[in-house]
Amino acid sequence: MDNSLDGSFDKQEMQEKLLQLREQLQSIAITRRGSAQVVELDQAKVGRLSRIDALQSQELAKASVVRSDRALTQISAALERIENDEFGICLHCDQPIALMRLQVDPTVLLCITCASAAEGG
After folding, report:
1. Is residue 80 included in any domain, yes or no?
2. Quick one: how far is CA 102 from the chain centroid?
3. Which domain holds residue 36?
4. 49-103 pLDDT, tens per residue?
5. What is the tally of structural domains in the chain?
6. Which of 20, 46, 83, 97 has the CB geometry, 3.0–4.6 Å to 50, for a possible disulfide?
């Protein structure tokens, strides 16, 4: 299957971009996981508003960890699609995904037409 996407698709370039993105997310995830740890609720050490603020920060960190994990899964799937020569092909219509779309988000699964239809627009 020719997956050249208008002759300008570079498999190695996309693979390197994905690997670099994965490395960045993994290093950020280490910090975020530390922030998502259990908050100490010792009233003698911390005031009520400080505890509420700490709990909110913890929840934000937890949500960030979930987003990072999801992004890492998407990156792994994109790398697998590159290895299987399926990268850049819309999962819905089997047409090539525009190179500019892949450059913005190399984990994208749908062409712009199918993505717009899926979003109801």
Report:
1. yes
2. 13
3. 11-86
4. 677 877 787 788 788 888 889 999 999 999 999 999 999 999 999 999 999 999 9
5. 1
6. 46
